[in-house]
Design brief:
The complex is a heterodimer of chains A (about 230) and B (about 220).
Chain A lengths: L9 E3 H15 L10 H9 L4 H11 L3 H19 L17 H20 L17 E3 L4 E3 L4 E5 L5 E9 L5 E7 L3 E4 L11 E9 L4 E3 L3 E5 L3
Parallel strand pairs in A: 3-10
Antiparallel strand pairs in A: 2-4, 4-7, 5-6, 5-8, 8-9, 8-10
Helix pairs in contact in A: 2-3, 2-4
Chain B lengths: L1 H16 L6 H39 L4 H19 L5 H6 L3 H25 L5 H7 L3 H20 L6 H8 L4 H8 L3 H21 L3 E3 L3
Classes of the chains: A alpha+beta (about 230), B mainly alpha (about 220).
């Protein structure tokens, strides 16, 4: 197998992204001597330090599956801190100390109620899933695609040992709007009436093997074009 | 039951013999007093940690993050808050009224420790992850090898993109929308778009030099 086999290859965005997923898997591993420290990843999230240094950290993190997941964990905590109103109280029995504190408290209650609703109406069995794993590689449609409202074909790579796949399309609160199960690696959804054109949704695929073990894909954004 | 009472009697005699007395009534009174305090502290911790974890989880879902990681960090947050307040009068009220910044700082510190511990653990254990690659590629052994070779070429082409644009291209290929790239780096939409397009042009040029065509929709 020489270079002649890969030259003259034709790629499109989906194939290139699939190959990029593969590159991350190839580079994933226990040897992490060149990885930036957790503090450097936190600096990237907080935009601390010179841009050049942050770019170098980001460049590594985006080429290293382990660092990418660690970066996302820190981003999630930072975002949650920002959403929780750092400096305000998270408890119910807080004493307003500033004129806008009641508003912040009301916002916190709304967020808490929203979170509770999302958790209650969450996807069944979600707690058991190793999300973020690159076990199922999504191929199409590409991330954040704006697609026609007629029909959408979802394609992913086969997973060794998988006997069935479940596709879910969720809204931003985590409620499943569309779902399908198949033994194949492609599903075409033709009835998209439950999706509102222009609104962002997320989709993912869960692979189940004969023993019931599950592996899931990352999530991709999806919007229907307003036509 | 009788046996237990007998055993405790022997144990009590032993303690009396060595000069240590046990005031069982006082111990029981303490236990009764402590239990409601412990329960209240536990409930207050649950409320605070669950609320913060809910917010992390909601963001984590957008970030395609593993729930297991979030769970482990939140468990650590709970333990830290517990240790910091255990045995303190009015601990449950303190926890319930804890500023969000306090919980957030605890979470950041717990996350950093969690990542350090996990890295240390992984450095000790060798894991063969490359096996999966062959399993997920299609087209038999030849197809697998060709796919690996093509992926390696693409990897080389990406590595040749100038450092100022390369991370943006990587984020794009990893599926991040442009807005998220701009937010993470603190760039304007225009700057992000400019760097991404130039980076993708670089990548196309490198791939073309390698004899690999790329038809992009971007």
């Amino acid at each position: 197998m020489g270079d002649g086999d890969v030259t003259n290859a034709r790629l499109d965005d989906n194939r290139l992204r699939g190959l990029y997923d593969q590159i991350l898997v190839m580079r994933d591993g226990p040897g992490r001597t060149s990885c930036p420290s957790p503090e450097a990843l936190l600096g990237l999230v907080r935009r601390d330090g010179p841009e050049e240094q942050r770019l170098a950290t980001l460049d590594h993190a985006m080429a290293c599956g382990d660092c990418a997941r660690e970066l996302e964990l820190l981003r999630a905590i930072e975002d949650a801190g920002a959403r929780g109103g750092v400096g305000e109280r998270v408890g119910a029995a807080s004493t307003p100390r500033r004129w806008y504190a009641p508003l912040a408290l009301a916002a916190s209650v709304l967020i808490a109620v929203g979170v509770a609703v999302v958790q209650r109406s969450g996807r069944p069995g979600e707690e058991d899933l190793p999300r973020g794993s690159s076990a199922v590689t999504l191929l199409a449609p590409p991330n954040d695609v704006r697609t026609g409202a007629g029909a959408v074909s979802f394609v992913w790579r086969p997973v060794a040992g998988a006997v069935r796949y479940a596709l879910e399309v969720l809204d931003t609160t985590g409620v499943v709007r569309l779902s399908a199960a198949t033994p194949d690696t492609t599903v075409t959804l033709t009835d998209l009436r439950k999706l509102t054109p222009g609104v962002e949704y997320r989709w993912w695929v869960r692979a189940t093997d004969a023993a019931g073990a599950q592996r899931v894909s990352t999530m991709r954004a999806l919007r229907l074009r307003s036509e | 039951m009788r046996k237990m009472a007998g055993d405790s009697g022997v144990f009590e005699n032993f303690l009396t013999l060595i000069g240590v007395g046990i005031d069982y009534d006082a111990a029981q009174r303490d236990a009764h007093c402590m239990r409601p305090q412990t329960d209240q502290l536990s409930a207050a911790l649950d409320a605070v940690v669950t609320r913060f974890a809910g917010m992390v989880r909601q963001v984590a879902w957008r970030h395609r993050l593993s729930d297991a990681d979030v769970d482990e960090v939140m468990q650590e947050v709970r333990v830290r808050l517990w240790r910091a307040h255990e045995g303190i009068d009015g601990a449950s009220e303190q926890i319930a009224n804890a500023p969000a910044s306090y919980v957030y700082r605890t979470a950041v510190s717990a996350a950093l420790d969690f990542l350090r511990r996990r890295r240390a653990r992984r450095a000790e254990s060798m894991v063969e992850l490359d096996e999966d690659l062959g399993a997920t590629a299609t087209g038999g052994p030849d197809g697998t090898l060709a796919a690996k070779e093509l992926a390696a070429k693409v990897g080389q082409a990406i590595d040749m993109i100038p450092a100022s644009r390369r991370p943006v291209v990587r984020m794009y290929l990893a599926g991040y929308p442009r807005e998220e790239i701009a937010t993470l780096m603190g760039w304007s939409e225009g700057k992000t778009r400019n760097l991404l397009y130039r980076g993708l042009a670089d990548l196309r040029e490198r791939l073309t030099e390698m004899g690999i065509g790329w038809e992009t929709a971007t």
